[in-house]
Design goal:
It is a single chain. The chain contains one helix and no strands.
Length: 55
């Protein structure tokens, strides 16, 4: 079995575009015998430290 982890960072103000992408992409996963195991959207307060630059 293969597990793929995808981290996506959204630009402020682009959330609606991402929601549109998800509404198309998530149903397609099953076409390839895939399964979405979890979908997490952490709040800003959940981050203790980060070395990733957000633009």
């Amino acid at each position: 079995m293969i597990y793929i982890t995808q981290l996506i960072y959204l630009k402020p103000g682009k959330e609606e575009i991402f929601n549109e992408f998800e509404s198309i992409a998530i149903p397609i996963i099953s076409n390839y015998n895939g399964q979405l195991l979890s979908r997490i959207r952490p709040v800003k307060e959940a981050f203790i430290e980060s070395s990733i630059w957000f633009y």
